[in-house]
Design goal:
The complex is a heterodimer of chains A (210) and B (459).
Chain A lengths: L1 H6 L7 H5 L8 E7 L6 E7 L9 H4 L5 E3 L5 E3 L9 H5 L5 E3 L26 E3 L4 H13 L12 H5 L16 H6 L4 E2 L13 E2 L6
Antiparallel strand pairs in A: 1-2, 3-4, 5-6, 7-8
Chain B lengths: L15 H10 L3 H27 L14 H12 L1 H12 L9 H21 L26 H21 L3 H10 L2 H10 L7 H34 L11 H27 L8 H32 L2 H11 L4 H19 L7 H28 L14 H24 L5 H8 L10 H10 L2
Classes of the chains: A alpha+beta (210), B mainly alpha (459).
Chain lengths: 210, 459
């Protein structure tokens, strides 16, 4: 989550605003407790934009700020967003965040803004981009070196910084990529799959429950 | 101009024209006091909006995941109120209900102003309201159109059509009255009303065309009105969100809109009756009739709520049930049951009895309905947004002062616009009332000569 904030210039809103439930975590780790005390298990589920194939947020946007790219990403064009917040209401996963105020970075955080990512102004919706700036940079690098991108060459900030390598990123169109193989695993499940949003994120159940 | 008093044989009360023009021609200090107070209330809202634009929507109580609350509630509520004019006036005109005559204009004015107030909110609620014109299709060098798949863009078309139609619907039957005021005033005022009267002389041809145009508008405006609130309901029912994604929303919203519209009309008529001393024109029987309509709509509303709740409860789908129980017995239950009392129990208890269907009784029931219908819109939006699928992301909502001021100022704006309108335009259609007083002239399109004669002799 911290890596995500740092990579994507996500402002921290401060304790008062956070208490109003306005914190912007493109990636959140949901915690679910199972069982009765003392026999309880804690489960973590990192929830980020599921980059749905049939995303409920896209058709409702009146200005095409939320739209589907040719790469299959669910993109948010900040400049085009006028802040109807309809996309956030339509999103089944609540992974869209609104800039209720102009962002402020406490010193010295203002010196570490990522130059590859635009800073969003007040009244604009934002959400996980799958680190689109890294995707672009890596594909361009591969292209300039006249080669295909290698599997695992590209990692979004969350996957890069997760010590347990619990997050795997890769090309689902390449059947041999690690992400592709894992997503086909019997342990794989999609979040709220029955809504028909066709998410591109796959969660792996624990071995025991699979 | 021949004074009506010299020809008592026609049966037109000598004082009717004078009586109904009195608010236009005489101004008391009370009018100025009322306008100043209401203008002050409107300024509160303007100030609140300026504060919000300056700081960001964060000054409201909105949060993650409740991204809509008072703003869209006000929007749906006021668009709902706007159904007073068309549905009452157009339907009553089409069925040629005689008692409609003093009521229609009061209703049509509510439509026009409530729509203007309601249509403000899709702009006011934006994160970047200065870019509101991106919601409209306009030629731009970037060649980007709005997204026609978005219900918000449908809203834009629906509301602009309805606003245009209802302004025409209000304006057409006012033309002969503008001509009347033109002939009764002098100087600048006469010129302004003359321009508004579009050269009305009361010829047979003009009466005939007016009747035809009004007939066309009365028929055309009804499907437009129904479609507008259906499209407003689509803002919710198009999203796969628990308790929103429902096929009942279209008719449910339209019924609720007519319901709240009638209530607003009763309140407005009672206020006019009291402050402009129109007891001779707005009789208790008008309130009684509108009270019956309100009672019927209350029953219809109750039926819709029952049908919606029962299907949800019987289906027992987990995400929907979590929203369902927050309204029935959870955090939103006090608001929910207040709504049921205001919209169903109280109107039923008051309006079912002839003895209680008085002016006061109808106004009390109507005030309840206005409160109840506002709560209904709120309870459609907020409990759902605070209880979407993933329980980890559930939230709550508490309004803050700028939003509350904005809500209060909408009522101030309605009062102000209504006060000013009744100051500058005869709030009761004088010519229609006169035609109504002459039973043989009740169909002026068939006997235009007589109507024209009446007009020439008794303006």
């Amino acid at each position: 989550m911290v890596a995500c904030h740092a990579e994507n210039n996500i402002p921290t809103v401060g304790p008062a605003e956070a208490a109003r439930s306005r914190a912007m975590h493109w990636l959140r780790v949901e915690r679910y407790w199972e069982g009765e005390f003392p026999d309880v298990r804690l489960k973590f589920r990192p929830v980020l934009c599921q980059q749905c194939e049939a995303a409920p947020c896209e058709p409702v946007c009146p200005t095409y700020a939320s739209h589907h790219t040719e790469d299959g990403l669910n993109a948010q064009v900040y400049n085009r967003c006028i802040g109807t917040r309809y996309c956030a209401n339509a999103c089944s996963y609540n992974v869209r965040f609104f800039n209720f105020f102009n962002p402020i970075w406490d010193k010295p955080l203002h010196l570490q803004l990522n130059p590859d990512v635009s800073v969003r102004e007040v009244g604009v919706m934002e959400k996980c981009t799958f680190c689109v700036q890294r995707i672009k940079a890596t594909t361009q690098l591969a292209k300039s070196e006249n080669r295909e991108m290698k599997d695992g060459e590209l990692k979004p900030a969350c996957a890069q910084s997760c010590p347990a390598t619990a997050i795997v990123f890769g090309d689902l169109n390449d059947p041999e990529s690690q992400a592709s193989r894992l997503s086909r695993s019997a342990r794989g499940e999609k979040l709220l799959e029955d809504l028909g949003t066709r998410p591109n994120v796959t969660y792996l159940k624990s071995q025991a429950s699979a | 101009m021949t004074g009506a008093a010299s020809r008592p044989a026609t049966g037109v009360p000598a004082t009717m024209t004078e009586d109904l023009l009195r608010p236009l021609l005489e101004t008391s200090w009370k009018f100025y006091a009322l306008v100043i107070v209401l203008f002050g209330v409107v300024l509160l809202g303007v100030g609140s909006f300026a504060y919000q634009v300056n700081n960001g929507i964060g000054v409201w109580g909105l949060n993650w995941p409740v991204f809509w609350a008072f703003d869209i509630t006000n929007f749906v509520f006021w668009i709902g109120i706007s159904h007073a004019g068309t549905l009452i006036s157009a339907i009553l005109r089409l069925v040629n209900a005689g008692w409609r005559r003093p009521v229609t204009r009061c209703a049509e004015v509510i439509t026009a102003f409530a729509l203007m107030i309601g249509a403000m909110f899709p702009i006011v609620h934006l994160g970047r309201p200065w870019l509101f014109f991106w919601l409209m299709p306009y030629p731009t060098e970037r060649q980007i159109w709005p997204n026609f798949r978005s219900p918000l863009v449908w809203d834009f078309f629906a509301i602009s059509t309805y606003l245009t139609g209802s302004l025409l619907f209000l304006y057409l039957p006012t033309i002969p009255d503008f001509a009347l005021v033109r002939d009764r005033t002098t100087g600048f005022r006469s010129r302004v009303y003359g321009a508004l009267a579009l050269g009305w002389r009361g010829t047979t041809k003009q009466w005939h065309r007016l009747e035809t145009a009004m007939q066309i508008m009365a028929i055309a405006i009804i499907p437009v009105a129904v479609s507008v609130h259906t499209i407003v309901s689509f803002d919710f029912s198009m999203a796969i969100v628990p308790m929103w994604h429902s096929t009942i929303f279209g008719p449910y919203f339209v019924a609720g809109a007519i319901f709240s519209g009638i209530a607003a009309l009763i309140i407005a008529m009672a206020a006019l009756r009291k402050f402009l001393h129109l007891e001779a024109y707005l009789h208790p029987v008008h309130f009684e009739n509108l009270g019956k309509l309100l009672l019927m709509m209350s029953l219809l509303w109750g039926y819709f709520v029952f049908a919606e709740r029962l299907t949800t409860w019987y289906g027992n789908e987990s995400a929907e049930m979590s929203v369902f129980w927050t309204t029935q017995s959870g955090a939103f239950a006090p608001l929910y049951w207040t709504m049921v009392v205001c919209n169903f129990v109280a109107p039923l208890c008051i309006l079912s009895f002839r003895k209680l269907r008085t002016v006061t009784g109808c106004v009390i029931a109507s005030c309840g309905v206005v409160v109840g219908m506002w709560l209904e819109r709120f309870l459609i939006i907020v409990p759902t947004l605070s209880h979407k699928y993933l329980s980890y992301s559930w939230g709550s909502y508490r309004p803050r002062m700028p939003e509350i001021l904005l809500l209060v100022s909408t009522f101030g704006a309605m009062g102000l616009l209504y006060t000013l309108f009744s100051k500058f335009v005869p709030i009761i259609s004088i010519w229609e009332l006169k035609v109504g007083e002459q039973p043989e002239l009740s169909q002026p399109q068939e006997t235009p000569d007589e109507a024209a004669t009446l007009w020439r002799t008794h303006p």
